[in-house]
TrEMBL record:
<feature type="domain" description="RING-type">
    <location>
        <begin position="72"/>
        <end position="115"/>
    </location>
</feature>
<dbReference type="InterPro" id="IPR001841">
    <property type="entry name" value="Znf_RING"/>
</dbReference>
<dbReference type="InterPro" id="IPR013083">
    <property type="entry name" value="Znf_RING/FYVE/PHD"/>
</dbReference>
<keyword id="KW-0863">Zinc-finger</keyword>
<feature type="transmembrane region" description="Helical">
    <location>
        <begin position="6"/>
        <end position="27"/>
    </location>
</feature>
<keyword id="KW-1133">Transmembrane helix</keyword>
<dbReference type="InterPro" id="IPR052788">
    <property type="entry name" value="RING-type_E3_ligase_ATL"/>
</dbReference>
<protein>
    <recommendedName>
        <fullName>RING-type domain-containing protein</fullName>
    </recommendedName>
</protein>
<keyword id="KW-0812">Transmembrane</keyword>
<dbReference type="GO" id="GO:0008270">
    <property type="term" value="F:zinc ion binding"/>
</dbReference>
<keyword id="KW-0862">Zinc</keyword>
<keyword id="KW-0479">Metal-binding</keyword>
<keyword id="KW-0472">Membrane</keyword>
<dbReference type="Pfam" id="PF13639">
    <property type="entry name" value="zf-RING_2"/>
</dbReference>
């Protein structure tokens, strides 16, 4: 009889442990997703849009990989002249802002082209300072 109770306790105990670890895993997933979303929002806020004609010309760029692509690899649409583009900091690959935003919100995201991790470096306040400094020159 004691053995029966012991087995029952063991089964319930492992069930509870499984439930707890499942809840913890769930929480971890939620946290990493939230962190990724916050990081993506910071990144999207900190980078100003660049219009397509401001991108380096494919013919002018020495390095082929540094040349501006003519289309967004996420939606495969060609950039239209003076269309607002989002240049990923770190690798300078270009996408539509609307296309890269959901991509960046995924946990452990990397650049869709070069798999490099995007870096959040410049807070918006500092960026304003840089742009005003450029205006003074
Ligand atoms: Zn796109
Ligand atoms: Zn890249």
């Amino acid at each position: 009889m004691a053995l029966w109770y012991f087995t029952l306790a063991l089964i319930y105990g492992s069930l509870i442990l499984m439930a707890i670890s499942e809840i913890l895993a769930c929480y971890q997933r939620w946290r990493s997703r939230r962190d990724a979303e916050l990081a993506a929002d910071r990144l999207l806020e900190s980078v100003a849009d660049v219009s397509y004609h401001q991108l380096p010309d494919a013919a002018a760029a020495e390095d082929e990989s540094a040349a501006a692509p003519s289309s967004c690899v996420i939606c495969m649409e060609d950039y239209r002249e003076s269309e607002r583009c989002f240049v990923l900091p770190g690798c300078a690959h270009t996408f539509h802002r609307g296309c890269i935003a959901p991509w960046l919100r995924q946990p452990n995201t990397t650049c869709p082209i070069c798999r490099r991790r995007p870096t959040v470096v410049i807070p918006p306040a500092q960026q304003r300072f840089i742009s005003t400094a450029e205006d003074m020159v």
